[in-house]
Write a structure and sequence with these properties.
The complex is a heterodimer of chains A (239) and B (247). Chain A is α+β, with helices and mostly antiparallel strands. The radius of gyration of chain A is 18 Å and the shape is globular. In chain A, 48% of the residues lie in helices and 14% in strands. A 5-stranded antiparallel sheet of chain A has the order 2-1-5-4-3, sandwiched between helices. Chain B is α+β, with helices and mostly antiparallel strands. Chain B is 59% helix and 15% strand. In chain B, β1 and β2 form a beta hairpin. In chain B, α2 runs antiparallel to α7. The longest helix of chain B has 55 residues. The chains are: A alpha+beta (239), B alpha+beta (247). Chains A and B meet through α7 and α9 of A and α7 and α9 of B. Chain A: InterPro entries: GAF-like_dom_sf. Chain A: This is ANTAR domain-containing protein. Chain B: It comes from Streptomyces lasiicapitis. Chain B: Keywords: Transcription, Transcription regulation. Chain B: This is Transcriptional regulator.
Chain lengths: 239, 247
Amino acid sequence: MTHPALADYLRTLSSHTGTGMGPLPLGACADMLGLDGLGLLLAPGGRSAELVQSYGERTLALEDLQQVQGQGPSLDSARHGALMLLPDVADAPTFATDRWPGLLGAIEALNVHAVFSFPLRIGIIALGALTGHRTRPGPMSTAQLTDAFGLSDTIAQITIATATRAELPATPLLDEPGLYFSEVHQATGMLADQLDTDCDHALIRLRGHAFSHGRPLLDVTRDVLARRLRLDDNTDGPL
Amino acid sequence: MPELPREEQLAAAFVDLADTLVQDFDVIGFLHSLAEHCVALLDVAAAGVLLATPSGQLVDAAASDERTRQLELASIEWGEGPCRDCFRTKKQIPDAPLATQSAMMRWPRFAPRAVELGFSSVVAAPLRLHDQVIGALNLFRDRPGPLADSQVRLGQTPADTATIGVLQQRAVSEQMTVTAQLQSALDSRVIIEQAKGYLANRRGTGVEEAFTLMRRYARDHRTRLTEIARQILQGTADTSLLTRRDQ
């Protein structure tokens, strides 16, 4: 039985006809799913995942951590269409500790104790993921899971429908609010020029620095953009 | 194929017609095999298929042999014939003898040509799933007497399978296209951000100032922002854009 309020949202969402995805009520959705935060990631064609909508004070940090490490439930869900349910991060199944070495402890350090990633997919095609978390451990109820599946399926449909209307260079889907990690890409471009390398390599250096110094990617990024940090002076240490 | 018993022929047709989720799927080739299976399975001399676009335009034909294909293509051009009527009405056209006055009235160009080719009667069945009709199937006989009802029903089965196959293939390729569009939208957003940072470093400016420059350059040169961004990152952009103000 779908939560009546969520059913309302789903109706509003699926009948949205304006540009863009329409205001996703992520806060209210999180409340109804019993979660403290929700993030929407897009990774069409299995590309790198971009956080495009975010609710909750820890969501950005949780996604930042996975970007730094290049691994995690959001990324597996977004890229491979896998459903990832971690009701207790401190007591995760072996597959999780094997698959993401070093990640779960860092998630706990953010005071996040339950993570749930729902793939956005249509058939076999993976588009992205909806990742929720809680500071309190514990499984989602069957009703909450049902609502979460309904929500992620609807978002996948809307994403597809919006993409067909999206005309470059204006892409309403990504314009509001846009890429949460846009500064990371700016810093990547800046580093590519400083290091005389390509953007792929520059991003690896940026992530490597954040990882080896145990800092969020966005912090390091802002230092690079403010010219407080250069990575070409060999003080960065081995990668 | 004629040596195989009917059940095995039918099974072979199903396997063939279910095999649509392969790379380089060719719809017309697929409908050709539907036509060939019909001739092998049924008491008919030839089979022809007309295919419509999702917007309802009849566009292409497949058939069990070349003369029938030519007849079907001509029927699209003339805008008349059993396949076209069947596609329009979404209903089966029961066995219609061709060398009659009523057939000549109904299809003044199609009927005489079909008779010329040696056909005596025709049945048309829609290729449909629920309310979606993607085309129609014609079954031609060259011997007197109508096609038995059981034969028509037997022909409808591979036609239904083929319809599902075509629709399935369309759905997958549509989603692939949309995913590619979405991916390219996301990619160009990322590339523009990267180019902002690259240009800011190159010119010793802030990121916003670099973006203003990029936009102005794109407008002045009537070039897309994504294209300018790509040129900046590949080092192929105009040197005036990449040079520091103080140099």
